[in-house]
Amino acid sequence: MATKNFGTPGSPIDPITADASTNIDLRNKTTSYASLLDGDSNSDLRSRMWSELVSRDAREQNVFAKFIGGEGSGKPITEKRDLGAGGSDKVTFTTVAPIRGQGVRGEEILKNATDTLDFGTFSIEVDLVRHAVSWTQVLKLMRFTGKTIDQLSAEVMSEWMSRTEQDQIQYSLRQICLNTGGNLISGYGTGANGDLKYVDGLSTDIIQEAKQALIANGGEPMSTGGDINQEIPGYLFFAPDACLRPLRSDPDYLEAITQADARSDNNKLYNGSYAKWDNNIIANHNVLIDTARGRQGSPLLPTFYAYSAIADASTLIGDTNGDFMANFRGAFIDIPGGGGVDLVEEAGTTYYILGVDTDGTVALYSYDAAAAAAAGDFSNISGGTLARVVNANTGFDVANMANLKADGANSFSAGALFVQANALGTPIGYALAMGKDAMYYAKGKIYGEQIFHYDDFANSGNEAHLSAVGVQSVYGMGARKDTRGRVPSVQLVEVVRQVPGLSITQA
Fold it and tell me: Whole-structure pTM over 0.90, yes or no?
Protein backbone atom coordinates (compact mmCIF):
# COMPACT_ATOMS: atom_id res chain seq x y z
CA MET A 1 0.00 0.00 0.00
CA ALA A 2 1.29 3.43 -0.89
CA THR A 3 2.25 5.68 1.96
CA LYS A 4 0.52 9.01 2.16
CA ASN A 5 2.53 12.05 3.22
CA PHE A 6 0.47 14.07 5.70
CA GLY A 7 3.32 16.45 6.50
CA THR A 8 4.91 17.22 9.77
CA PRO A 9 3.00 18.69 12.75
CA GLY A 10 2.81 22.46 12.57
CA SER A 11 3.30 22.47 8.81
CA PRO A 12 -0.12 22.26 7.18
CA ILE A 13 -0.16 21.23 3.54
CA ASP A 14 -1.17 23.68 0.85
CA PRO A 15 -3.40 21.61 -1.50
CA ILE A 16 -2.64 23.95 -4.37
CA THR A 17 1.15 23.81 -4.23
CA ALA A 18 1.56 20.29 -2.82
CA ASP A 19 3.38 17.74 -4.99
CA ALA A 20 1.64 14.85 -6.69
CA SER A 21 2.24 12.46 -3.78
CA THR A 22 0.55 14.71 -1.25
CA ASN A 23 -3.13 14.06 -0.51
CA ILE A 24 -3.60 13.10 -4.14
CA ASP A 25 -6.97 11.54 -3.45
CA LEU A 26 -8.32 14.83 -2.06
CA ARG A 27 -6.88 16.92 -4.89
CA ASN A 28 -8.35 14.73 -7.61
CA LYS A 29 -11.81 14.89 -6.08
CA THR A 30 -11.92 18.67 -5.82
CA THR A 31 -15.01 20.06 -7.57
CA SER A 32 -14.72 23.30 -9.53
CA TYR A 33 -17.03 25.46 -11.60
CA ALA A 34 -15.04 24.41 -14.63
CA SER A 35 -15.72 20.72 -14.08
CA LEU A 36 -19.41 21.37 -13.51
CA LEU A 37 -19.69 23.44 -16.66
CA ASP A 38 -18.08 20.62 -18.61
CA GLY A 39 -20.66 18.08 -17.55
CA ASP A 40 -23.92 16.77 -18.89
CA SER A 41 -25.71 19.47 -20.85
CA ASN A 42 -29.02 18.28 -19.40
CA SER A 43 -27.86 18.46 -15.80
CA ASP A 44 -30.07 20.69 -13.66
CA LEU A 45 -27.15 21.22 -11.30
CA ARG A 46 -24.97 22.34 -14.22
CA SER A 47 -27.62 24.82 -15.34
CA ARG A 48 -28.03 26.29 -11.85
CA MET A 49 -24.28 26.56 -11.33
CA TRP A 50 -23.85 28.16 -14.78
CA SER A 51 -26.54 30.71 -13.97
CA GLU A 52 -24.99 31.48 -10.59
CA LEU A 53 -21.56 31.91 -12.15
CA VAL A 54 -22.81 34.18 -14.93
CA SER A 55 -24.87 36.36 -12.56
CA ARG A 56 -22.09 36.63 -9.98
CA ASP A 57 -19.37 37.45 -12.50
CA ALA A 58 -21.65 39.95 -14.25
CA ARG A 59 -22.26 41.85 -11.02
CA GLU A 60 -18.54 41.81 -10.13
CA GLN A 61 -17.67 43.30 -13.54
CA ASN A 62 -20.30 46.04 -13.33
CA VAL A 63 -18.63 49.37 -12.47
CA PHE A 64 -21.67 50.27 -10.35
CA ALA A 65 -21.45 47.08 -8.24
CA LYS A 66 -20.21 48.84 -5.08
CA PHE A 67 -22.97 51.43 -5.37
CA ILE A 68 -25.89 48.96 -5.53
CA GLY A 69 -27.61 47.85 -2.33
CA GLY A 70 -30.92 46.69 -0.94
CA GLU A 71 -33.73 48.87 0.41
CA GLY A 72 -32.50 50.97 3.32
CA SER A 73 -28.83 50.57 2.35
CA GLY A 74 -28.40 54.25 1.51
CA LYS A 75 -26.67 53.36 -1.77
CA PRO A 76 -27.26 55.39 -4.96
CA ILE A 77 -28.94 52.40 -6.65
CA THR A 78 -31.57 50.49 -4.66
CA GLU A 79 -32.21 46.91 -5.71
CA LYS A 80 -35.42 45.01 -4.94
CA ARG A 81 -36.18 41.42 -5.86
CA ASP A 82 -39.80 40.33 -6.31
CA LEU A 83 -39.85 36.60 -6.91
CA GLY A 84 -43.49 36.79 -7.95
CA ALA A 85 -42.96 39.29 -10.75
CA GLY A 86 -42.87 37.99 -14.30
CA GLY A 87 -42.74 39.70 -17.68
CA SER A 88 -44.83 42.88 -17.97
CA ASP A 89 -45.53 42.87 -14.21
CA LYS A 90 -44.78 45.85 -11.98
CA VAL A 91 -42.74 46.19 -8.82
CA THR A 92 -43.97 49.07 -6.66
CA PHE A 93 -41.81 51.22 -4.41
CA THR A 94 -43.34 53.48 -1.79
CA THR A 95 -41.99 56.87 -0.72
CA VAL A 96 -43.13 59.05 2.16
CA ALA A 97 -42.59 62.78 2.62
CA PRO A 98 -41.17 64.18 5.87
CA ILE A 99 -43.55 66.04 8.17
CA ARG A 100 -43.15 69.52 9.57
CA GLY A 101 -45.37 71.68 11.77
CA GLN A 102 -45.02 73.22 15.24
CA GLY A 103 -46.33 70.42 17.42
CA VAL A 104 -48.12 71.36 20.67
CA ARG A 105 -46.94 72.72 24.03
CA GLY A 106 -47.99 72.13 27.60
CA GLU A 107 -51.70 71.38 28.09
CA GLU A 108 -52.63 71.77 24.44
CA ILE A 109 -54.63 68.88 22.95
CA LEU A 110 -52.62 66.97 20.34
CA LYS A 111 -55.39 64.89 18.79
CA ASN A 112 -56.70 67.85 16.82
CA ALA A 113 -53.24 68.89 15.62
CA THR A 114 -51.82 65.69 14.20
CA ASP A 115 -50.21 65.63 10.78
CA THR A 116 -50.83 63.12 8.01
CA LEU A 117 -48.47 60.84 6.16
CA ASP A 118 -47.93 61.94 2.57
CA PHE A 119 -47.30 58.77 0.60
CA GLY A 120 -46.12 58.46 -2.95
CA THR A 121 -45.76 55.32 -5.04
CA PHE A 122 -43.49 54.61 -7.94
CA SER A 123 -43.87 51.50 -10.04
CA ILE A 124 -41.27 49.96 -12.29
CA GLU A 125 -42.37 47.61 -15.03
CA VAL A 126 -40.20 44.53 -15.37
CA ASP A 127 -39.91 42.55 -18.55
CA LEU A 128 -38.13 39.54 -19.97
CA VAL A 129 -34.76 40.18 -21.63
CA ARG A 130 -32.87 37.40 -23.43
CA HIS A 131 -29.65 36.95 -25.35
CA ALA A 132 -27.61 33.96 -26.50
CA VAL A 133 -24.61 32.73 -28.45
CA SER A 134 -24.72 29.83 -30.92
CA TRP A 135 -22.30 27.38 -32.49
CA THR A 136 -22.13 24.27 -34.61
CA GLN A 137 -21.06 20.79 -33.56
CA VAL A 138 -17.68 21.31 -35.27
CA LEU A 139 -16.91 24.23 -32.98
CA LYS A 140 -18.03 22.32 -29.91
CA LEU A 141 -15.39 19.67 -30.61
CA MET A 142 -12.65 22.28 -30.38
CA ARG A 143 -11.04 23.63 -27.21
CA PHE A 144 -9.83 27.20 -26.90
CA THR A 145 -7.00 27.91 -24.46
CA GLY A 146 -8.05 24.85 -22.49
CA LYS A 147 -11.72 25.85 -22.28
CA THR A 148 -14.79 24.19 -23.67
CA ILE A 149 -17.34 26.09 -25.73
CA ASP A 150 -19.68 25.95 -22.73
CA GLN A 151 -17.13 27.65 -20.51
CA LEU A 152 -16.44 30.29 -23.13
CA SER A 153 -20.15 30.95 -23.56
CA ALA A 154 -20.49 31.47 -19.80
CA GLU A 155 -17.71 34.05 -19.91
CA VAL A 156 -19.10 36.02 -22.86
CA MET A 157 -22.65 35.97 -21.46
CA SER A 158 -21.47 37.25 -18.07
CA GLU A 159 -19.59 40.05 -19.85
CA TRP A 160 -22.72 40.86 -21.87
CA MET A 161 -24.86 40.96 -18.72
CA SER A 162 -22.45 43.28 -16.91
CA ARG A 163 -22.06 45.58 -19.92
CA THR A 164 -25.81 45.67 -20.53
CA GLU A 165 -26.57 46.40 -16.88
CA GLN A 166 -24.08 49.26 -16.52
CA ASP A 167 -24.92 50.76 -19.93
CA GLN A 168 -28.64 50.73 -19.22
CA ILE A 169 -28.12 52.33 -15.80
CA GLN A 170 -26.01 55.10 -17.36
CA TYR A 171 -28.30 55.59 -20.35
CA SER A 172 -31.50 55.79 -18.32
CA LEU A 173 -30.02 58.22 -15.78
CA ARG A 174 -28.58 60.36 -18.59
CA GLN A 175 -31.87 60.55 -20.46
CA ILE A 176 -33.92 61.10 -17.31
CA CYS A 177 -31.78 64.12 -16.44
CA LEU A 178 -31.97 65.44 -20.00
CA ASN A 179 -35.75 65.10 -20.13
CA THR A 180 -36.66 66.49 -16.70
CA GLY A 181 -36.27 70.05 -15.51
CA GLY A 182 -33.56 70.94 -12.99
CA ASN A 183 -31.37 67.84 -13.40
CA LEU A 184 -28.77 69.08 -15.92
CA ILE A 185 -25.66 71.18 -15.30
CA SER A 186 -24.26 72.70 -18.50
CA GLY A 187 -23.52 76.05 -20.10
CA TYR A 188 -20.60 76.97 -17.84
CA GLY A 189 -17.96 77.07 -20.59
CA THR A 190 -16.04 80.04 -22.01
CA GLY A 191 -17.53 79.73 -25.50
CA ALA A 192 -20.54 81.54 -26.91
CA ASN A 193 -23.68 80.92 -24.84
CA GLY A 194 -21.60 79.10 -22.26
CA ASP A 195 -20.61 76.29 -24.63
CA LEU A 196 -17.65 74.25 -23.47
CA LYS A 197 -14.30 74.72 -25.16
CA TYR A 198 -11.62 72.04 -25.09
CA VAL A 199 -9.75 74.05 -22.42
CA ASP A 200 -12.81 74.06 -20.11
CA GLY A 201 -12.00 70.78 -18.39
CA LEU A 202 -13.62 69.54 -15.19
CA SER A 203 -12.73 71.48 -12.03
CA THR A 204 -13.48 71.26 -8.32
CA ASP A 205 -15.93 74.15 -8.72
CA ILE A 206 -18.16 72.00 -10.95
CA ILE A 207 -18.11 69.12 -8.46
CA GLN A 208 -19.17 71.51 -5.70
CA GLU A 209 -21.91 72.97 -7.92
CA ALA A 210 -23.25 69.46 -8.64
CA LYS A 211 -23.42 68.72 -4.91
CA GLN A 212 -25.28 71.95 -4.21
CA ALA A 213 -27.72 71.18 -7.05
CA LEU A 214 -28.45 67.79 -5.46
CA ILE A 215 -29.08 69.37 -2.08
CA ALA A 216 -31.32 72.07 -3.54
CA ASN A 217 -33.39 69.42 -5.33
CA GLY A 218 -33.90 67.30 -2.22
CA GLY A 219 -31.22 64.69 -2.91
CA GLU A 220 -30.27 63.00 0.35
CA PRO A 221 -26.63 62.07 0.92
CA MET A 222 -25.53 58.47 0.77
CA SER A 223 -23.66 56.86 3.62
CA THR A 224 -19.90 57.12 3.19
CA GLY A 225 -18.99 55.70 6.60
CA GLY A 226 -17.91 57.53 9.73
CA ASP A 227 -16.69 57.12 13.29
CA ILE A 228 -18.52 55.91 16.38
CA ASN A 229 -19.91 59.36 17.05
CA GLN A 230 -21.42 60.34 13.74
CA GLU A 231 -22.30 59.18 10.27
CA ILE A 232 -20.58 61.15 7.53
CA PRO A 233 -22.97 61.97 4.69
CA GLY A 234 -21.64 62.35 1.20
CA TYR A 235 -22.44 62.16 -2.48
CA LEU A 236 -21.12 60.23 -5.47
CA PHE A 237 -19.51 61.89 -8.48
CA PHE A 238 -19.20 59.21 -11.16
CA ALA A 239 -17.57 59.85 -14.54
CA PRO A 240 -15.39 58.24 -17.21
CA ASP A 241 -11.69 58.75 -16.59
CA ALA A 242 -11.42 60.65 -19.88
CA CYS A 243 -13.71 63.30 -18.32
CA LEU A 244 -12.06 63.30 -14.88
CA ARG A 245 -8.52 63.63 -16.20
CA PRO A 246 -8.49 67.49 -16.33
CA LEU A 247 -9.22 67.48 -12.59
CA ARG A 248 -5.62 66.45 -11.99
CA SER A 249 -4.53 69.80 -13.40
CA ASP A 250 -6.91 71.83 -11.24
CA PRO A 251 -4.70 73.82 -8.84
CA ASP A 252 -6.99 73.40 -5.81
CA TYR A 253 -7.35 69.66 -6.30
CA LEU A 254 -3.66 69.19 -7.05
CA GLU A 255 -2.64 71.05 -3.90
CA ALA A 256 -5.10 69.07 -1.77
CA ILE A 257 -3.85 65.64 -2.78
CA THR A 258 -0.23 66.82 -2.69
CA GLN A 259 -0.50 68.21 0.84
CA ALA A 260 -3.16 66.06 2.48
CA ASP A 261 -2.88 62.62 0.87
CA ALA A 262 -0.51 59.82 1.86
CA ARG A 263 3.21 60.46 1.40
CA SER A 264 3.84 57.20 -0.45
CA ASP A 265 3.08 55.31 -3.62
CA ASN A 266 -0.53 55.26 -2.39
CA ASN A 267 -0.85 58.97 -3.07
CA LYS A 268 -3.80 59.56 -5.43
CA LEU A 269 -1.49 61.52 -7.69
CA TYR A 270 0.44 58.35 -8.48
CA ASN A 271 -1.95 55.39 -8.17
CA GLY A 272 -4.56 56.63 -10.65
CA SER A 273 -7.47 56.93 -8.21
CA TYR A 274 -9.22 60.12 -7.09
CA ALA A 275 -9.47 61.63 -3.64
CA LYS A 276 -12.74 62.83 -2.13
CA TRP A 277 -13.58 66.46 -2.69
CA ASP A 278 -16.09 68.30 -0.50
CA ASN A 279 -17.01 64.79 0.70
CA ASN A 280 -17.94 63.71 -2.79
CA ILE A 281 -16.68 60.24 -3.61
CA ILE A 282 -15.10 60.59 -7.05
CA ALA A 283 -15.43 57.29 -8.91
CA ASN A 284 -13.77 56.88 -12.28
CA HIS A 285 -14.73 54.46 -15.03
CA ASN A 286 -11.90 53.36 -17.29
CA VAL A 287 -13.76 52.89 -20.54
CA LEU A 288 -11.84 50.54 -22.82
CA ILE A 289 -12.07 50.07 -26.57
CA ASP A 290 -12.45 46.33 -27.06
CA THR A 291 -13.01 44.15 -30.12
CA ALA A 292 -16.79 43.81 -29.82
CA ARG A 293 -18.86 44.28 -32.96
CA GLY A 294 -21.19 46.98 -31.76
CA ARG A 295 -21.24 49.92 -29.38
CA GLN A 296 -18.06 51.18 -27.74
CA GLY A 297 -17.57 53.70 -25.00
CA SER A 298 -20.58 54.18 -22.75
CA PRO A 299 -23.67 56.42 -22.58
CA LEU A 300 -21.49 58.83 -20.57
CA LEU A 301 -18.69 58.58 -23.15
CA PRO A 302 -20.28 58.01 -26.60
CA THR A 303 -17.67 56.50 -28.91
CA PHE A 304 -17.43 54.87 -32.31
CA TYR A 305 -14.18 53.16 -33.27
CA ALA A 306 -13.52 52.46 -36.94
CA TYR A 307 -12.14 48.93 -37.21
CA SER A 308 -12.02 49.32 -40.98
CA ALA A 309 -11.50 52.29 -43.31
CA ILE A 310 -14.48 54.58 -43.97
CA ALA A 311 -14.89 55.90 -47.50
CA ASP A 312 -17.37 58.67 -46.66
CA ALA A 313 -18.31 59.42 -43.07
CA SER A 314 -21.17 61.66 -44.17
CA THR A 315 -22.88 58.60 -45.65
CA LEU A 316 -22.05 55.83 -43.23
CA ILE A 317 -19.86 55.29 -40.19
CA GLY A 318 -21.57 52.20 -38.81
CA ASP A 319 -23.52 49.50 -40.56
CA THR A 320 -26.80 47.76 -39.98
CA ASN A 321 -25.27 44.71 -38.31
CA GLY A 322 -24.71 45.99 -34.80
CA ASP A 323 -25.70 48.74 -32.36
CA PHE A 324 -22.66 50.87 -33.19
CA MET A 325 -24.17 54.26 -32.40
CA ALA A 326 -26.45 53.25 -29.52
CA ASN A 327 -24.54 55.29 -26.93
CA PHE A 328 -24.79 58.58 -28.86
CA ARG A 329 -27.32 61.34 -28.20
CA GLY A 330 -30.52 60.85 -30.14
CA ALA A 331 -30.31 57.07 -29.94
CA PHE A 332 -32.94 55.03 -28.18
CA ILE A 333 -32.19 51.99 -26.05
CA ASP A 334 -35.29 50.03 -25.10
CA ILE A 335 -34.87 49.52 -21.35
CA PRO A 336 -37.32 47.51 -19.21
CA GLY A 337 -39.11 49.97 -17.00
CA GLY A 338 -38.32 52.82 -19.35
CA GLY A 339 -36.33 54.65 -16.70
CA GLY A 340 -39.52 56.05 -15.21
CA VAL A 341 -39.89 58.85 -17.80
CA ASP A 342 -39.92 59.22 -21.55
CA LEU A 343 -36.32 58.58 -22.56
CA VAL A 344 -36.68 59.69 -26.19
CA GLU A 345 -35.26 63.14 -26.93
CA GLU A 346 -37.28 65.63 -28.92
CA ALA A 347 -37.06 65.54 -32.70
CA GLY A 348 -35.43 68.58 -34.25
CA THR A 349 -32.53 68.72 -31.82
CA THR A 350 -29.16 69.02 -33.54
CA TYR A 351 -26.30 66.87 -32.30
CA TYR A 352 -22.63 66.77 -33.26
CA ILE A 353 -19.99 64.13 -33.83
CA LEU A 354 -16.27 64.86 -34.08
CA GLY A 355 -14.22 62.50 -36.23
CA VAL A 356 -10.53 62.19 -35.30
CA ASP A 357 -8.44 60.38 -37.91
CA THR A 358 -5.24 58.46 -37.21
CA ASP A 359 -3.15 61.24 -38.79
CA GLY A 360 -4.62 63.83 -36.40
CA THR A 361 -6.97 65.42 -38.93
CA VAL A 362 -10.50 66.18 -37.76
CA ALA A 363 -13.96 66.84 -39.14
CA LEU A 364 -17.17 67.90 -37.44
CA TYR A 365 -20.58 66.51 -38.40
CA SER A 366 -24.09 67.37 -37.34
CA TYR A 367 -27.18 65.20 -37.30
CA ASP A 368 -30.81 65.41 -36.27
CA ALA A 369 -32.50 62.94 -33.95
CA ALA A 370 -35.51 62.58 -36.25
CA ALA A 371 -33.31 61.80 -39.25
CA ALA A 372 -31.39 59.26 -37.22
CA ALA A 373 -34.61 57.62 -36.06
CA ALA A 374 -35.83 57.45 -39.66
CA ALA A 375 -32.78 55.32 -40.47
CA GLY A 376 -34.12 52.57 -38.21
CA ASP A 377 -33.47 51.86 -34.58
CA PHE A 378 -30.38 54.04 -34.52
CA SER A 379 -28.12 51.04 -34.74
CA ASN A 380 -26.30 53.16 -37.27
CA ILE A 381 -26.12 56.72 -38.54
CA SER A 382 -26.59 56.18 -42.22
CA GLY A 383 -28.55 57.32 -45.23
CA GLY A 384 -26.91 60.73 -45.31
CA THR A 385 -27.97 61.66 -41.77
CA LEU A 386 -24.54 63.18 -41.05
CA ALA A 387 -23.95 66.68 -42.41
CA ARG A 388 -20.40 68.05 -42.62
CA VAL A 389 -19.86 71.25 -40.63
CA VAL A 390 -17.27 73.61 -42.11
CA ASN A 391 -18.72 76.97 -41.11
CA ALA A 392 -16.35 79.11 -39.05
CA ASN A 393 -19.34 80.35 -37.05
CA THR A 394 -19.52 77.01 -35.30
CA GLY A 395 -16.50 78.01 -33.23
CA PHE A 396 -13.92 76.16 -35.26
CA ASP A 397 -11.18 78.57 -36.27
CA VAL A 398 -11.19 77.19 -39.79
CA ALA A 399 -8.67 79.66 -41.15
CA ASN A 400 -6.02 78.67 -38.64
CA MET A 401 -6.76 74.98 -38.15
CA ALA A 402 -4.13 73.09 -40.08
CA ASN A 403 -5.52 69.67 -39.16
CA LEU A 404 -9.09 70.29 -40.37
CA LYS A 405 -10.05 67.96 -43.20
CA ALA A 406 -10.80 69.79 -46.42
CA ASP A 407 -14.44 70.31 -47.37
CA GLY A 408 -15.59 67.17 -49.15
CA ALA A 409 -12.76 65.06 -47.70
CA ASN A 410 -14.71 62.66 -45.49
CA SER A 411 -12.64 59.50 -45.64
CA PHE A 412 -11.17 58.04 -42.44
CA SER A 413 -8.57 55.34 -41.89
CA ALA A 414 -9.05 52.21 -39.81
CA GLY A 415 -8.46 53.19 -36.18
CA ALA A 416 -10.23 56.56 -36.48
CA LEU A 417 -12.29 57.69 -33.51
CA PHE A 418 -15.71 59.36 -33.56
CA VAL A 419 -16.96 61.01 -30.37
CA GLN A 420 -19.92 63.07 -29.22
CA ALA A 421 -19.22 66.80 -29.53
CA ASN A 422 -20.90 70.18 -29.20
CA ALA A 423 -21.34 72.87 -31.86
CA LEU A 424 -17.80 74.14 -31.20
CA GLY A 425 -16.35 70.73 -31.97
CA THR A 426 -15.46 70.12 -28.31
CA PRO A 427 -15.53 66.41 -27.41
CA ILE A 428 -18.27 65.94 -24.81
CA GLY A 429 -18.83 63.38 -22.06
CA TYR A 430 -21.04 63.26 -18.99
CA ALA A 431 -20.75 62.80 -15.25
CA LEU A 432 -23.40 61.67 -12.76
CA ALA A 433 -23.73 63.29 -9.33
CA MET A 434 -25.83 61.01 -7.14
CA GLY A 435 -27.23 60.75 -3.65
CA LYS A 436 -28.95 57.82 -2.01
CA ASP A 437 -31.79 56.03 -3.80
CA ALA A 438 -31.13 57.80 -7.09
CA MET A 439 -32.35 54.80 -9.04
CA TYR A 440 -34.60 51.84 -8.34
CA TYR A 441 -33.57 48.52 -9.85
CA ALA A 442 -36.30 45.88 -9.78
CA LYS A 443 -35.73 42.18 -10.44
CA GLY A 444 -38.40 39.58 -11.10
CA LYS A 445 -38.66 35.85 -10.56
CA ILE A 446 -35.68 34.95 -12.76
CA TYR A 447 -32.29 36.59 -13.25
CA GLY A 448 -29.40 35.13 -15.23
CA GLU A 449 -31.30 31.91 -15.94
CA GLN A 450 -29.65 29.61 -18.48
CA ILE A 451 -31.60 28.90 -21.67
CA PHE A 452 -30.89 26.51 -24.55
CA HIS A 453 -31.80 25.96 -28.16
CA TYR A 454 -30.99 22.90 -30.28
CA ASP A 455 -31.61 22.44 -34.00
CA ASP A 456 -30.78 20.14 -36.90
CA PHE A 457 -29.86 16.46 -36.57
CA ALA A 458 -28.53 15.14 -33.25
CA ASN A 459 -26.16 12.29 -32.47
CA SER A 460 -26.90 9.33 -30.17
CA GLY A 461 -26.01 11.51 -27.18
CA ASN A 462 -28.77 13.91 -28.24
CA GLU A 463 -26.24 16.63 -29.09
CA ALA A 464 -27.61 18.67 -31.96
CA HIS A 465 -25.52 20.00 -34.81
CA LEU A 466 -26.68 23.56 -34.11
CA SER A 467 -26.67 24.65 -30.48
CA ALA A 468 -27.16 27.88 -28.59
CA VAL A 469 -26.95 28.84 -24.94
CA GLY A 470 -27.91 32.11 -23.35
CA VAL A 471 -29.43 33.89 -20.39
CA GLN A 472 -32.80 35.38 -19.63
CA SER A 473 -33.72 37.81 -16.90
CA VAL A 474 -36.78 39.67 -15.71
CA TYR A 475 -35.92 43.18 -14.53
CA GLY A 476 -36.60 46.89 -14.90
CA MET A 477 -35.16 50.18 -13.71
CA GLY A 478 -36.11 53.78 -13.20
CA ALA A 479 -35.18 56.92 -11.29
CA ARG A 480 -36.77 57.50 -7.90
CA LYS A 481 -39.39 60.20 -7.75
CA ASP A 482 -40.30 61.93 -4.50
CA THR A 483 -43.84 62.81 -3.41
CA ARG A 484 -43.60 66.09 -5.37
CA GLY A 485 -42.77 64.29 -8.59
CA ARG A 486 -39.13 65.44 -8.61
CA VAL A 487 -36.15 63.25 -9.45
CA PRO A 488 -34.12 64.42 -6.45
CA SER A 489 -31.00 62.29 -6.21
CA VAL A 490 -29.22 62.60 -9.54
CA GLN A 491 -27.69 65.42 -11.58
CA LEU A 492 -26.16 65.08 -15.04
CA VAL A 493 -23.07 67.21 -15.68
CA GLU A 494 -21.90 67.93 -19.22
CA VAL A 495 -18.10 67.87 -19.21
CA VAL A 496 -15.18 68.06 -21.63
CA ARG A 497 -13.83 64.71 -22.77
CA GLN A 498 -10.11 64.24 -23.31
CA VAL A 499 -9.12 62.55 -26.59
CA PRO A 500 -5.50 61.36 -26.85
CA GLY A 501 -3.53 63.25 -29.48
CA LEU A 502 -6.36 65.66 -30.32
CA SER A 503 -5.47 69.24 -31.19
CA ILE A 504 -8.21 71.65 -32.20
CA THR A 505 -8.27 75.41 -32.67
CA GLN A 506 -11.42 77.15 -31.46
CA ALA A 507 -12.44 80.76 -31.93
Answer: no
